[in-house]
Amino acid sequence: MARRRYLIAYDIADPARLRRVCRVMEAYGQRLQYSVFLCDLSKLELVRWRADVHEVIDYGEDSVVMIDLGPEGAAASVTQLGRPRDLPKSGPAII
Amino acid sequence: MARRRYLIAYDIADPARLRRVCRVMEAYGQRLQYSVFLCDLSKLELVRWRADVHEVIDYGEDSVVMIDLGPEGAAASVTQLGRPRDLPKSGPAII
User: Where does Mg(2+) bind (chains A, B) (predicted)?
Assistant: First the structure.
């Protein structure tokens, strides 16, 4: 299954929505920072992620940004200064 | 001057350091989210950014990640859900 690596970052205005977005993100990828995740997703997983996030965010108050970093395994590299984080090995934990 | 677009995100443990990192980031790029910036930087500007950040962060507590999104003008695209943000037109505000 071909996957692409995405960086997904979010600013969620409401604490309850923030917790729900975090739960969604943890099912699809790996936390790089407090509100920044790296996710290796197939096209189907990307559609599911989008539907799950759509259910939670308030489009007037919240902001989610997604950047396609390229094919899994050949994606843009991540340079880390300070406290390092593990990068995703492959694919979401739970579909 | 050839520039590349970088996504820079940070988790800074100490409020005073966080303010200083914010000031550094605002001089080099455009805020995409609370702790996520897009910066179009030449090689020289990248070296200066790194030196400036090095002066501020605590390598044991703080985390800064930087992802090269490609040449300015042909960089990886940013998909935004919810409240949109302006993307950088070009180059840092203050060298």
Answer: 11
Between the alpha carbon of residue A56 and those of residues A8, A95, B28, B51, the distances in Å are: 15, 17, 33, 39
Residue in this structure with the two tokens 């920044």, named with its chain if needed: A36
Contacts of A88 in chain B (CB under 8 A): none
Question: Do B82 and A69 lie within an 8 Å CB cutoff?
Answer: no
Judged by CB atoms closer than 8 Å, whether chains meet at A83 and B77 is answered as no
Q: Is B52 annotated as a binding residue?
A: no
Structure tokens at B9: 């995100």
Tell me, yes or no, if A51 comes closer than 8 A to chain B by beta carbon.
no
Class of domain B4-63: alpha beta
Rounded CA separation A28/A26 (Å): 5
Residues A58 and A54: their CA atoms lie apart, in Å, by 8
Q: Which CATH architecture is the domain A14-71 placed in?
A: 2-Layer Sandwich (3.30)
